[in-house]
Amino acid sequence: MNDQRIQEKLSILADAAKYDVSCSSSGGKRKNEDKGLGNAEGMGICHSYTEDGRCVSLLKILLTNHCIFDCAYCVSRRSNDVKRAAFTVDEVVELTMNFYRRNYIEGLFLSSGIFSSPDYTMERLVRIIRKLRTEHRFNGYIHVKAIPGASEELIQEAGLYADRLSVNIELPSEMALTTLAPEKNYEEILTPMAQIRDGIIQNKEEKALFKKVPPFATAGQSTQLIVGASQENDLQIINLSDSLYKGYGLKRVYYSGYIPITDDARLPQVTHPPLIREHRLYQTDWLMRFYGFQADEILDPAHPFLDLEIDPKLAWALRNRQVFPVDINTADYEMILRIPGVGARSAKRIVAARRFGPLSLDHLHKFGVVLKRAKFFLTCRGQALEKRDYDEQTIRRQILFGSGSVRSALVTQQLDLFAQAS
Amino acid sequence: MAISRFSASSVPVVAAAPAARRVVPALSNVPLDYAYDGTFEGLLTVLFTVYDRKAAPNSIQPTGAVQGGLFVQPVEVETNEAAAARVWKGLLQYMDAEARTRLFHTFLSEQPDRELVIFRYADLAMRAGRDISEHYADDNVRRVQRLAQQMYREKHRMEAFVRFEKTQDGLFHATIEPDFDVLPLIAAHFTKRYADQRWLIYDRRRHYGLYYDLHRTDIVQFDGGAMPQRSTAVSATVLDEREPLYKLLWQAYFDHVNIPERKNMKLHRRHMPLRYWKYLSEKQPREQRFEPIRNKRPVQPGGPALGAGAAVTE
């Protein structure tokens, strides 16, 4: 291959793929057998980090950025004036193998603009991953996009070679989709999602019955929602995620703060991606998946937006003062996990360590509990750390501006921007 | 993103105490200063000696490194493989294999007081009458936990930050300078992953490496000058002719997967501390050959397009 040309292609097609924020390489179950190349078991590895602080785990590229669609939010939309390029099947295979051999990456994340037809595009993607798995005996991680509208057979075959499959919803409501991506519809997105879900369930059932069953997307499926390109509130977004986790068994929903890429009149005119809002959505997502929170505990129609200044767990605690204080020597793990400033690791430590004897506040500090936040919500052997009974607003002020408060530089910066803009 | 996952159901449960525990002798004799050969087996032999002599350690240090008063006369403990094996096996009566591995990791952490930390942990475990691995209120238990965690993080970083270069003879070579002695911990990972290529990972700070020859992985040492080029930077002449291209492609990929609008150098450095950059090819200075995608800036009503970073005022 022509060195300069391949470098240019890689630049264009990495640039075009980077707005897909998924980077996970964990949860695979692919072992290296018979001295092939690579493995994808369990923990993912971030091999590098970009200057925006995001993890680089996979070779994340488009097969091509030629696209027949014209979705307003997308940098590769038909009407956008960008350089176009396309890899050949062998070029992608060569790049993946050579990057992997040098320990640059955990594997490949392959997506594509849609050229000529969904089936034609999907067939190319499948051809690449089939070649990697069968001819090159590559056992690294593969994440591949299921192209909406592609045939069931092709998606089925993709699931055989890929560790993860994903279909991006992108816009959190059908109305936004109709306006911004008129050639797409929810049904076309949800159909492959349901097919992948059923494939994974069926695969698990077969595994319980038979010894040797070909794998099917063992690291599950994920999707992405763009935040801030359309008018949905956080409640709508969180409810959508909740239904995707529950109804489609997704492993992850990614949130991607909309980055202004166009002056299309249908899109909001903003100068900076809504990073804080994106961050708060991720925190909420974590609360639902690892902290036992229900979606409707965090937001409701009366409060449809997340508080940008404070994290959603603290916001919940301030609204539900009646369940506090929680005593760390007697409360259940589930309640300790709900104390602001106590993370999952400290909560586990507290529950484990108190079996050896009562814990003091000094212990909590050593376990990594953020007492600045936690002190308003807990007692230790019946004693409160904060003697006065503050109201919600006072606690909020103390945590945000009190002595020793370290406001995230990002929050300050973004709130300043809001102040300037209004 | 590689993160450990927690779920509410995985709350630690009380581990049943192992059935047969031997009574541990009281260390009633005058405490002693111990010296050993600096190997893990040597340290285990010291532990054996401590209980054999019933004399707690004032200090345990490698021979030659012994510090202390002018009059300190350390007991030189000669490494005894059988005694070491007995101690290693015996520890399982008082802790599970995971906790025992943490003690080994504490040893690899190269902390100046590692020997005493290990002794205190083992002694507490033997006398506690139950599994102490989650006794986080105890400073020593927490110390071992933290050191093991730091070791784990460094191991994980090396699994991520190794950058192989291919040489003309088909060897994939990398140099590292980890904070701790993690080569023994990463051997299994690389052996499993790169089963079909010969590779060498060299720890430049500790002057030894891991070499896999398509059959097995061994610890290798190079005596003065035998492998000078490989122990530092592989000189361009011995590299595979395609190597510069792949380095260039990797750098191009790294530049173009970045989103400038989200730039956050603080986060970048937190994940990838400066001290590791030396061996990361993507962090080496270079010319950028192709412009990144220029995203359109929003147009101010009636005005020209704004440059990057300017705020819109309404």
UniProtKB/TrEMBL annotation, chain A:
CDD domains on file: Radical_SAM
InterPro entries: Aldolase_TIM, DNA_rSAM_put, Endo/Exo/Phosphatase_dom_1, rSAM, rSAM_sf, RuvA_2-like
Residues annotated as signal peptide: none
GO-annotated molecular function: catalytic activity; iron-sulfur cluster binding; metal ion binding
Keyword annotations: Iron, Iron-sulfur, Metal-binding, S-adenosyl-L-methionine
Cofactor(s) in the UniProt record: [4Fe-4S] cluster
Name of a matching Pfam family: Radical_SAM
Radical SAM core domain segment(s): 62-193
Protein name stated in the entry: Putative DNA modification/repair radical SAM protein
UniProtKB/TrEMBL annotation, chain B:
Domain of life from the UniProt record: Bacteria
DUF4130 domain boundaries: 112-282
Region (Disordered): 289-314
Protein name, entry field: DNA metabolism protein
Organism: Hymenobacter metallilatus
Lineage, broadest ranks: Bacteria, Pseudomonadati, Bacteroidota, Cytophagia, Cytophagales
